[in-house]
Amino acid sequence: NTVMAARMTDAHRRFLQVLMSNGITEGSEARKLHQHCCETDKVYYAHDKLDDFISTINSHLQPLFMQIRKGVSEDDGRAHYAVVNLAETEVTKMASDYTETELELFRKTMDLIILSENGFASSTDILNLADQLKTKKMKKKEAEQVLKVFVEDKWLSEKNGEYTLHTRCIIEMEQYILSNYQDVARKCNICHSLTIQSQVCESCGIGMHLPCVRKYFRGQTEPRCPKCNEFWSCDTP
């Protein structure tokens, strides 16, 4: 395998360091960073070789149970990259940064989001959980502050008082979510990434991200499910 044989250059190391310190990096930023790292290290740069560049880094990260993963924003369908620790579960991944009580609030928030119909949970519903925590009851003011931190740390996204999982969280916790929410978690039928906010086919139950729905049905006079070919009854965005 040529990828496995490729050596890790300073350009690769620099790229990895920035990705790790960012937490998550948008696709266009990753492409700029790729160019910058190659030019700084005076190694060959090809604008269409970012995936190969990342594969080389991943081959060296493999023994460390780490990986750079690509995911899509559920909002606009843009690619994002994050460094994932494959040896950790959701709990240990966040345990070093948050208290047991904060983690419990996060898990309960995650439940609300994933089990909801639209992939969102209202701040009211989340704050109502604060005084029902088993570890330690939390005052609403305190819980509001913790939610703010989860948004700043890119585990949650907030829009008009509604919370959903941030792209970073979806990339890093995909395996955890798929195994812990087997009955409801699904992958997008188009891009095969985990989808939290999705449209679902009423006939066969497949799900698609809204940006993927938009792209897939563009130019089609009558939207039909890509799997069962039944009429797509959701309002296409």
Automatic annotation (TrEMBL):
<keyword id="KW-0833">Ubl conjugation pathway</keyword>
<keyword id="KW-0479">Metal-binding</keyword>
<dbReference type="GO" id="GO:0008270">
    <property type="term" value="F:zinc ion binding"/>
</dbReference>
<keyword id="KW-0234">DNA repair</keyword>
<dbReference type="GO" id="GO:0005634">
    <property type="term" value="C:nucleus"/>
</dbReference>
<dbReference type="InterPro" id="IPR036388">
    <property type="entry name" value="WH-like_DNA-bd_sf"/>
</dbReference>
<keyword id="KW-0227">DNA damage</keyword>
<keyword id="KW-0863">Zinc-finger</keyword>
<protein>
    <recommendedName>
        <fullName>Non-structural maintenance of chromosomes element 1 homolog</fullName>
        <ecNumber>2.3.2.27</ecNumber>
    </recommendedName>
</protein>
<comment type="function">
    <text>RING-type zinc finger-containing E3 ubiquitin ligase that assembles with melanoma antigen protein (MAGE) to catalyze the direct transfer of ubiquitin from E2 ubiquitin-conjugating enzyme to a specific substrate. Involved in maintenance of genome integrity, DNA damage response and DNA repair.</text>
</comment>
<dbReference type="Pfam" id="PF08746">
    <property type="entry name" value="zf-RING-like"/>
</dbReference>
<dbReference type="GO" id="GO:0061630">
    <property type="term" value="F:ubiquitin protein ligase activity"/>
</dbReference>
<keyword id="KW-0779">Telomere</keyword>
<comment type="similarity">
    <text>Belongs to the NSE1 family.</text>
</comment>
<keyword id="KW-0808">Transferase</keyword>
<dbReference type="GO" id="GO:0000724">
    <property type="term" value="P:double-strand break repair via homologous recombination"/>
</dbReference>
<feature type="domain" description="RING-type">
    <location>
        <begin position="188"/>
        <end position="229"/>
    </location>
</feature>
<keyword id="KW-0158">Chromosome</keyword>
<dbReference type="InterPro" id="IPR011513">
    <property type="entry name" value="Nse1"/>
</dbReference>
<dbReference type="GO" id="GO:0030915">
    <property type="term" value="C:Smc5-Smc6 complex"/>
</dbReference>
<keyword id="KW-0539">Nucleus</keyword>
<dbReference type="InterPro" id="IPR014857">
    <property type="entry name" value="Nse1_RING_C4HC3-type"/>
</dbReference>
<keyword id="KW-0233">DNA recombination</keyword>
<comment type="subunit">
    <text>Component of the Smc5-Smc6 complex.</text>
</comment>
<dbReference type="GO" id="GO:0000781">
    <property type="term" value="C:chromosome, telomeric region"/>
</dbReference>
<dbReference type="InterPro" id="IPR001841">
    <property type="entry name" value="Znf_RING"/>
</dbReference>
<dbReference type="InterPro" id="IPR013083">
    <property type="entry name" value="Znf_RING/FYVE/PHD"/>
</dbReference>
<keyword id="KW-0862">Zinc</keyword>
<dbReference type="Pfam" id="PF07574">
    <property type="entry name" value="SMC_Nse1"/>
</dbReference>
